[in-house]
Amino acid sequence: MSNSVIGLSIDCSDAAKLAQFWADVLGRTVNPEPTAEFAAETERLLALGATRVTDTAKGAARWTTFRDPEGNVFDLVAD
Predict the structure, then answer these.
(1) Residue 75: which H helix or E strand, with range?
(2) pTM
(3) 3, 23, 48, 63: most buried by Cβ count inside 10 Å?
(4) Using an 8 Å Cβ cutoff, are 77 and 34 in contact?
């Protein structure tokens, strides 16, 4: 049996440091730039009614924080 991780979201104070830790744990690398799919997904979320709160970049970690139509916060993490 094997497992794979598609995404991991953790509330933390140093996203770049934690991203590197998990990349090392999983034998992966931290991608330095968002992909084209990230840009397309951002536009799709906005079209569905999400509101962009902030774009964040800390070292190699990048994400956009949104609010859903009821004000709940969620993040789209660059892959």
Answers:
(1) strand 73-77
(2) 0.59
(3) 63
(4) no
